[in-house]
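Long-time lurker, first post. I've been practising inverse folding by hand and with some scripts of my own, and I keep getting stuck on stretches where the structure tokens seem ambiguous. Below is the full token string for one chain I'm working on. Before anyone asks, I'm not after the true native sequence, just a reasonable design that respects the backbone. If someone could post their per-position residues I'd love to compare against what I wrote down in my notebook.
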């Protein structure tokens, strides 16, 4: 190993993004004495919760678990008001964290990193921002979120629409008042399903354009009971520890039975109990819902029955019945009054499979058989998930090759944290990690702490470069696919598979093995001296 002269860099670490991942990465590394700076496109912190301000936006994970656990004083002092926190409250929490730890002094807002090129000679990254800044850093950590590259379908005539067009993922900060308006919402994923009941409450008429019906369960959102919260907070640490070792980073109680073992009466009782309790707990009813299509069909039919029971017009109910994917293989939606909304006289549901959008016209939407006059159009049309936010940056590794080219056949990573050929680059909640299949904050904390430990290891050994090895990456990708293929997940045309983006290679992107198992694997890799990484630098032994 030849000695390298220590290259000069502006920072030890640059973090891209100042959502929950970027904020915690910045805080952790700064506390450990690194020079670190974050760049954020938005004008303030919050990431997803900064942008997605649409009416009804709310977390689908219970607020008591959807928060940082790294600082006990922080978790004790912050009071959530509702079981599922609304977007403004989560954004206030992000702001509170930024204030409390004085994070903003090391964040450049309204600054978008457009390129990052690795310079092998100095073991460093050179970055450029859209605003013209150039900086160099030894390590680059992406905290860009999994659902931050919004997707707007290229309907003919969208520009010609004379009313207002609002995208749920980039909602006006002052809100939108739909009172007295004829509104159209396109898209019935989580964003559509959360916003439709609220918009219906304001609009004079609402037309919902649905391409694919989704499964949704009631949130049963309610104010949090202060006594119950106090009891939980008395031993918050063990609640957190338990969550870290679950499958999804949240505590879901299961019957420990398969659907078949339960039999029809118990199945019905258990699904009913969970439907009445509300939230994601529904999927935990039995152990085989995610892996056995017969078991899954029972859960799915229970929900379809509920929809038939809620929606009074049988034809409308029929159109709302999810039919093309097993329940849970697309992110389960958690709603407040979604299905009931379609009982209102002024709400219409258009089935785009039967009657597709031909174009947007100045006064509304034209489908094959009808024209809808609208004052406002709401696009809840989703994201280029997981790889989209990374691929839109010009990231070039050691050989000058683009990350997006490397990933053109689907993302390839080691542990979802690093990718071969791109040394000193770490991807928080990157593809190949549990990420979107989990409580994101649990996954973020685990990644941040793991990355910080690796950097500390390098520092203490006088090393300047960590790169994932090809063989480790290949076997991780194989493992990710193998685990995915043992479940029903790959059978759905979901954004987990990239199926919502025309031309994107269909690969199941997140790691479905569960956050507990995944954490153990990552810890083991660290214990083995970062097995699968080549660590080099002036301090490396020959
Ligand atoms: P999703 O879940 O990707 O939903 C997007 C919706 O938009 C979905 O219903 C799509 O129908 C629909 N869509 C997309 N393109 C079109 C076109 N061209 N025409 C008609 N309809 C279209 O995004 P969300 O923002 O709701 O939720 C994303 C995640 O955020 C969610 O899972 C939670 O984790 C939080 P499709 O199903 O593709 O037929």
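-- Answer (accepted) --
I ran through it position by position. Result:
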């Amino acid at each position: 190993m030849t000695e390298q002269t220590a290259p000069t860099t502006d920072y030890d670490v640059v973090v891209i993004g100042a959502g929950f991942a970027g904020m915690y990465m910045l805080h952790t590394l700064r506390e450990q004495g690194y020079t670190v700076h974050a760049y954020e496109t938005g004008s303030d912190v919050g990431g997803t919760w900064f942008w997605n301000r649409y009416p009804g936006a709310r977390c689908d994970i219970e607020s008591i678990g959807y928060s940082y656990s790294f600082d006990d004083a922080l978790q004790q002092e912050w009071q959530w008001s509702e079981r599922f926190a609304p977007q403004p409250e989560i954004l206030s929490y992000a702001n509170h964290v930024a204030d409390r730890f004085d994070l903003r002094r090391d964040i450049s807002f309204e600054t978008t990193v457009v390129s990052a090129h690795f310079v092998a000679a100095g073991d460093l990254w050179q970055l450029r921002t859209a605003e013209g800044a150039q900086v160099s850093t030894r390590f680059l950590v992406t905290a860009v979120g999994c659902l931050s590259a919004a997707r707007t379908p290229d309907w003919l005539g969208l520009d010609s629409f004379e009313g207002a067009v609002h995208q749920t993922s980039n909602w006006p900060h002052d809100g939108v008042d739909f009172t007295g308006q004829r509104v159209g919402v396109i898209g019935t994923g989580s964003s559509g399903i959360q916003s439709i009941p609220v918009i219906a409450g304001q609009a004079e008429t609402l037309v919902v354009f649905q391409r694919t019906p989704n499964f949704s369960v009631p949130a049963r959102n309610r104010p949090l009971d202060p006594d119950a919260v106090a009891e939980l907070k008395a031993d918050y640490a063990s609640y957190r520890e338990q969550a870290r070792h679950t499958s999804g980073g949240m505590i879901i109680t299961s019957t420990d039975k398969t659907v078949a073992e339960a039999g029809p009466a118990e199945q019905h009782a258990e699904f009913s109990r969970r439907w009445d309790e509300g939230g994601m707990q529904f999927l935990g009813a039995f152990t085989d819902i995610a892996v056995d299509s017969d078991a899954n069909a029972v859960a799915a039919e229970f929900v379809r029955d509920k929809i038939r029971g809620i929606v009074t017009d049988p034809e409308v109910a029929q159109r709302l019945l999810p039919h093309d994917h097993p329940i849970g293989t697309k992110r389960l939606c958690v709603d407040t009054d979604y299905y009931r909304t379609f009982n209102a006289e002024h709400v219409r549901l258009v089935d785009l499979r039967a009657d597709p959008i031909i174009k947007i016209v100045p006064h509304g939407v034209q489908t094959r058989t009808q024209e809808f006059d609208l004052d406002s159009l709401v696009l809840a049309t989703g994201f280029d998930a997981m790889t989209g936010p990374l691929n839109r940056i010009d990231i070039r590794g050691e050989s000058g090759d683009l990350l997006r080219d490397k990933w053109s056949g689907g993302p390839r990573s080691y542990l979802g944290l690093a990718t071969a050929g791109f040394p000193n680059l770490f991807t928080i909640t990157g593809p190949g990690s549990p990420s979107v299949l989990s409580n994101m904050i649990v996954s973020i904390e685990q990644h941040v702490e793991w990355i910080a430990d690796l950097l500390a290891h390098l520092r203490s050994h006088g090393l300047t470069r960590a790169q994932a090895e090809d063989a480790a990456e290949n076997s991780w990708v194989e493992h990710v696919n193998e685990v995915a293929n043992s479940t029903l997940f790959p059978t759905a045309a979901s954004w987990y598979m990239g199926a919502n983006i025309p031309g994107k290679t269909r690969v199941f992107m997140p790691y479905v093995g569960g956050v507990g198992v995944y954490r153990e694997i990552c810890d083991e890799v660290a214990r083995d001296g970062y097995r699968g990484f080549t660590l080099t630098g002036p301090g490396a032994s020959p």
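A couple of notes from the structure itself: The pocket of NA7 is lined by residues 147, 153, 186-192, 211-212, 331, 352, 380-382, 495, 500 (CB under 6 Å). The chain is about 30% helix and 15% strand. Happy to go over any region you disagree with.
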